[in-house]
Each structure stands twice: as structure tokens, then as C-alpha cells.
Automatic annotation (TrEMBL), chain B:
Entries under Pfam families matching the protein: Rieske
Residue span, Rieske domain: 5-101
NCBIfam families xref list: MocE_fam_FeS
Metal-binding recorded as keyword: yes
Organism listed in the record: Paracoccus kondratievae
Record bears the keyword Iron-sulfur: yes
Protein name, UniProt field: Rieske family ferredoxin
Transmembrane regions: none
Any one GO molecular function term: 2 iron, 2 sulfur cluster binding
Gene name, Swiss-Prot/TrEMBL: mocE
Amino acid sequence: MNGMVIIGAGECGTRAAFALREAGWSGPVTLIGTEPGVPYERPPLSKPRDGIVLRKPICPPEAFGNAGIHYLADCTARSLDPVTKTVTLENGEVLPYHRLLLATGATPRRLICRGGDRALNLRSHADAEAIFARALPGHPVAIIGAGLIGMELASVLIRNGAPVHVIDTAPAPLTRAVPSHFAAQLHQRHQAEGVRFHLGQGVAEIGADGVALADGTFVPADLTVAAIGVVPETGLAKAAGLATGNGILTDAELRSSAPDIFAAGDCAAAVQPDGSHLRQESWQNARTQAETAARNMLGESQPYAALPWFWSDQYDLGLQVAGQPRPEYHMVRRPLPGGELAFYLNAGQLVAAAGLGAGNSTAREVKLAEMLILAGARPDPALLADSAINLKSLLKSARAA
Amino acid sequence: MTDWVTACKLDDIEQEGAIRFDHNSRTYAIYRGPDDSVWCTAGLCTHEAIHLADGLVMDFEVECPKHSGAFDYRTGEALRLPACENLRTYPTEIVNGEVRVALG
Ligand SMILES: Cc1cc2nc3c(=O)[nH]c(=O)nc-3n(C[C@H](O)[C@H](O)[C@H](O)COP(=O)(O)OP(=O)(O)OC[C@H]3O[C@@H](n4cnc5c(N)ncnc54)[C@H](O)[C@@H]3O)c2cc1C
């Protein structure tokens, strides 16, 4: 019998392999991953404590054997053929599949400028080791890109005693996924810690001793890191004729345009109720899409409907965002001990929430907000703003309604 | 040998809530259930070193504030991934409104 084949052994592919077993599949499962060693979590890579990069395994090494999962590490799938239903590995071996999951993730966007190759990227454990081996106290670092990963890295490196410069073409940091008033609070915190920002600035050239900006400014740096986003790894899918765009396009049940091929995690763009495609880049999305894809590979027809959710840690501050806050939504703020919560209402319905505060101080409330969103709550904004009102009581009334 | 330690007052913990309790350089979480029963587990999530007392308590479940792993705090049983290892639990008692835990 041909089995289930998963390409990509990151958070998504690894989770999917185990989820297939949990859902009752007893046939063969093969997990193919380019990277060596046991699959590991990426979030700790930009959050090392005391300069030590953690390689946190997603599962203990023996878990594959125990679950009967055939894990091929250090092995790249070179091509796939949806007609013969086979995958060809780089060593020429041909693997037939019953159903295939593409969990190929994403790769850092390359910086196009003179000397662009001098900039290091941060995606893999090897990347993180290379960066932290070279980030020494007193040696200036230039980080190009003020997104989540660039800003996490800035917070770690400045605390390690390196002068840190952050360069971005945008006029402010964290413009993409973080609600603007929390982005502004984080920006201020970075400035207070001594991070120097060069915003609204393109890069002209990266040299051996620093970065030349478009306006002629020279930013001295012994180490330059480019964190300007990622591009979905769609090469295999495209070559095989699958529909792709900003990711491998899937239906609501994470099926690609080819029969028996599914896609999930950072590489997948799933269709939304309004017909657009949404590609997410978060740890939780990788895991929950893996679980949905695994069940649908076994014949179920569950649409993927989880609420987007991610976190980021910068200094002692923890950010969590549930749903997709948009500037046009009505925002309601609630102060919390150690932080602040923001709710986003669309025509009276709660659709997103975010929290920023010391450590995990806002996590509990963000979770309750998420449950309110999923319950379809239309809470009174005055109650949301009032810290004396327990969100649990709002949840109980929303569920009773 | 059982070492009964007074941790806090019952009223220090919200109903369906939890607080962190540190003792002898170890950390614990003490929970008050919806029925006012009191429970104690190891303080850190088994998936990553995150204080569970910051997590949401609903019924008899606590959810890790970071990765949403969940545990039954009465038994320590891991209920939802990514947590897969159970939490250690410790006996508790309420004496004159004070919560005591047996750490040993
Ligand atoms: C530094 C860093 C910090 C992050 N921090 C956070 C955070 O704080 N919070 C959060 O929510 N998210 C965070 N993320 C995002 C999160 O880690 C990703 O969303 C998640 O890893 C996506 O999982 P994935 O399995 O879809 O893709 P990936 O993790 O990219 O895994 C895909 C794997 O597939 C392999 N592969 C690709 N093509 C092939 C092929 N042809 N053959 C074999 N193998 C192949 C790749 O080598 C890779 O190992 C962070 C990411 C990074 C890089």
C-alpha cells in the first residue's frame, strides 16, 4: 500500500506526521526534510537567552520510531509528479504516495543591493548559530528590516552589549502584523534601550564595515542581518503545475489544485470566505493547519477555521495578537496590571484582540478575547474598556445568547 | 517526609483562577476551582519553562499562556498538545482560610 508522504519537516510537516497517527492512519508515513537532525522549533532562534541559541526539538528523537514514522532527515525532494503520484528525491529514489502534504515552509527574502550577499539571514538553526557566533559585545550590528524577527533580534543583541542599528524603508517599525499603537510602544521601548533607527531609508550597498543608505548615511556594522520577510517555498508545486500565488493555493480544506496533494503551514495560501487567499506565518498556524490537513488527507472535509494567533517577545514584553486587527475597526482599550489589551470591533462584532505587557501578563485576557471572538460576541464597548469587568462573565453571557 | 507549607490565603486566589507560589527555589501553581476546591501543581509548563499561573483557568483546566498546551490541574494530566508530559501534583488542604500544600 502506498502511504502518506510529507515534504518538509518543520513545525507543520512534523506535526502532520503525528496527527495522521492520532487520527487513526496505520499505513506508512514518510516525512522528508532538507535539514539535518531532529526537527526543531524556530521561535526560540530569535529569542536566545544569554546568547545561547536553543535547538528545541519538536519531539523527542525516539518519537518517530515509536509512532512508526519514517523520517528522512537531510534529504530534499527534487520533484513531484501528480499524474504518477510520485515524489523523486535528490538521490534519485522515487517514492509513490497515496496522499501528499506539502509543508515546505518559507525562505528569507533576499536583499537585492550591492553587497547584498554579505547580509546574514535568520531562518534555520544554522543561521542563528552563525549570527550569534559573530554578534559580540561592542561590535555594531545593522539589522535591515524592522519586522517581528528583526525587532526580536535587536532586543537580544542590544542586551548582549552590541550597538544595534535598525534600517527599514517603512516610516515605522512593525507595520505589517502589529496594531499600530502597540508597534509605537515597542518602537519607543527599543529607542529607550538604545537601538538606533534609520527609517524611510533604502539600502544602497553593504560593505565589509557597514551599510550605505540611499541618502548617503553610512551605518558602521561588523555584522549585517537581513530580516526583510520570507517568501513561500513553492518551487516544487509550481514545477508540478499546481496553482500558486503568494503560496501554494488551497481550498478551505487545504487541498491544492491537484488531486491528493495538500498544502499547509507557511507555504500555503488558503482560500477565505471572500474568495481571497490568506497565507500565514505563525507557529500556531503551522500546527493547526497540520492537524486539519492530516484529517482531510484521511478523507474528512473539515474547513480550516482557526483564528490567526501569534506572539512575539521583545525585552521583557510579550505581545499576543488574535484575529487580524485592521485600522478601520473600532478599537477599545483596556488597561491591565502590567500591560494593555486592545479589542477590535467590526460593526459591533468582536473580531480581533491584542495584548502587550510584561511577560505573559496579558495572555489570559487575550485567550478570553479569542473565545469571545469565536463565540461571535457583540460585547458592549464600555464593558470591554472597564478592567473591573471580568471577561469570563462576558463570555458566559455571549455563550448564553 | 511530607512538608506542609502555608502558601497563601484562599481569598488570595480568584475563583477559577491561579497564583504562582515559590518555595525553596522551586515554583508551583496553586488553583482555586469553580467549586472553591484548591489544587497545586508544578509551576512550569512541561513544554517550555512558562509559568502556568499566568494562564487561563476554566473549569478544572489550565492553559499555558504561551502555546496553549492544557492540563487538568487536579490530576496534572496533559490534555492538549504541545504539552505531552503530565504535571506533577501536590496535596493541598485549607485550614482556617489558609491554603497549605504538601511539598515533598
Ligand atoms: C527566527 C524565527 C522566529 C519566529 N518566532 C515566532 C514567534 O515568536 N511566534 C510565532 O507565532 N511564529 C514565529 N516564527 C514563525 C514560525 O516559526 C513559522 O511560522 C513556522 O516555523 C512555519 O512552519 P512550517 O513547517 O510551515 O515551515 P518551516 O518551519 O519553514 O519548515 C519547512 C521545512 O521544509 C523544508 N523543505 C522545504 N523544501 C523542501 C524539499 N523540497 N524537500 C525537503 N524539505 C524541504 C525546509 O528545509 C524546512 O525545514 C518564527 C520564525 C523564525 C524563523
